[in-house]
Design goal:
α2 runs antiparallel to α15. 67% of the residues lie in helices and 4% in strands. The chain is mainly alpha-helical and 423 residues long.
């Protein structure tokens, strides 16, 4: 049987672009994920260069384990920030590394169990009425963050910031709608570049870090037995291991989006066990070199949706560039100087496209919202997920997206198909 090829996209998963086009498309993904990936280590106190290297290596590991069948980029995970900040204050990075490797091990154990029992249960617990709203939450749950970054400068409203964000948004929309050929494939990259130039013109960009950076900068790698003697940190295991189940929920949510975009079922091929294994091994690699735990990124899924370029070669190229960039101080500092409103202007489109994909699932599956069960499930998922309701117990946090997903699954399983009033 011939392998499926999606002819509705510009480049399908196994399609390899020409070298110059390849470089541009990979840079587009790299620029899109850069801000979030380096923000996590900055908040925790880890070298941002290591985070770039670990995200690139983690992505390459993921692509290898999933047989190059899933176009997913892995960047620094936000879910572990609070736990990592606590561990950094008490035991330092070695404890974080052990926690990251432990979460990776949890993924591997779950992957083994999935391999044994299969993934047919996914269809039962994740029908369209749950999947659609969850995907909408993945996009819209980040909307407030994007809006705040577009308006706020050190906690104060800044009209110049807002102007930069709106100009970046407008430029990106223009490029997306009216350019064709190679330029039509990189509207996000062009939007970032021209938005950056506009931000530079209005004085929002700080280039001091670029001037001070060296051209070659070896990241401050933290490798067990080489830079530190590892020991057992019970606090790290207890603190970070449970969070693995939260990020697994996000992992599954991102896979659902990718399934829809690529017209495939990655739960079956290469299998949920392989996707979990790839994610777990990527986290272990990240912890081994000194980076934060990694996870798939909604921003990059948005790029896939807008450009209709789903090539794993492009994702792999972005991963290789991330590793290289981790050693080039000037370039790292230049990208780090991209101001928040530029990234926010891009995010308005990226996050919105993800949300629209969830809405499309509801429409295509002809979900009947006259049925009370469907109305209740969608309502709970959307309000909790977008509203930002989360559960916190000590250092353990169940994010709004994860909580919305869990409640949606539970409601779908326990509510009768027809309410008594409908009967």
């Amino acid at each position: 049987m011939a392998e499926f090829h999606n002819d509705d996209v510009v480049l399908d998963i196994k399609d390899k672009p020409k070298p110059f086009v390849w470089l541009g498309l990979s840079l587009q993904h790299l620029f899109t994920m850069f801000g979030a990936t380096v923000l996590v280590p900055i908040l925790v106190g880890i070298n941002p260069g290591i985070a770039l290297v670990s995200s690139g290596l983690g992505t390459l590991v993921y692509l290898f384990v999933t047989k190059g069948k899933i176009p997913a980029y892995l960047g620094s995970s936000f879910a572990f920030i609070a736990a990592m900040q606590l561990l950094m204050k008490t035991d330092g990075y070695p404890a974080i590394a052990q926690g990251a490797m432990t979460t990776g091990l949890v993924y591997l154990i779950v992957a083994f169990l999935v391999k044994k029992i299969g993934s047919a249960w996914m269809d039962k617990i994740l029908p369209p009425i749950v999947v659609g709203p969850v995907i909408m939450v993945i996009g819209l749950g980040l909307a407030a963050n994007a809006a705040n970054n577009a308006m706020m400068n050190n906690g104060k409203y800044d009209f110049t910031y807002l102007l930069v964000a709106l100009v970046t948004l407008g430029i990106t929309i223009f490029f997306n709608m009216f350019l064709k050929g190679f330029l039509g494939l990189i509207p996000i990259l062009l939007g970032i570049i021209f938005g950056y130039l506009f931000a530079l013109a209005v004085g929002v960009v700080d280039l001091s870090g670029v001037a001070a950076a060296d051209w070659f900068a070896l990241p401050n790698f933290q490798v067990p037995f080489l830079t530190y003697e590892p020991k057992f940190y019970a606090s790290a295991v207890i603190t970070m291991a449970p969070i693995a189940f939260v990020t697994m929920t996000e992992h599954i949510g991102h896979l659902m989006v990718l399934n829809k975009l690529t017209k495939r079922n990655f739960f079956e091929d290469p299998g949920l066990n392989r996707t979990l294994m790839g994610d777990g091994l990527a986290q272990i690699v990240a912890g081994f070199v000194g980076g934060p735990p990694v996870t798939s990124y909604g921003e990059n899924i948005g790029v896939l949706a807008i450009t209709r370029v789903h090539s794993v070669f492009v994702i792999g190229g972005a991963a290789v560039l991330a590793v290289i960039l981790g050693f080039v101080g000037k370039l790292s500092a230049l990208i780090l100087s991209i101001p928040n409103p530029v990234i926010s202007g891009i995010s308005f489109i990226l996050f919105g496209v993800i949300a629209a994909s969830g809405l499309k699932i509801l429409i295509e599956n002809k979900i009947n919202f006259d049925k009370k069960k469907n109305l209740i499930i969608a309502s709970v998922i959307l309000v909790i997920g977008i509203g930002g309701l989360y559960v916190e117990a000590g250092t353990f946090t169940l994010s709004a997206m994860a909580l919305a997903t869990v409640l949606g699954i539970i409601l779908n399983l326990i509510l009768p198909e027809t309410s008594r009033s409908e009967a």
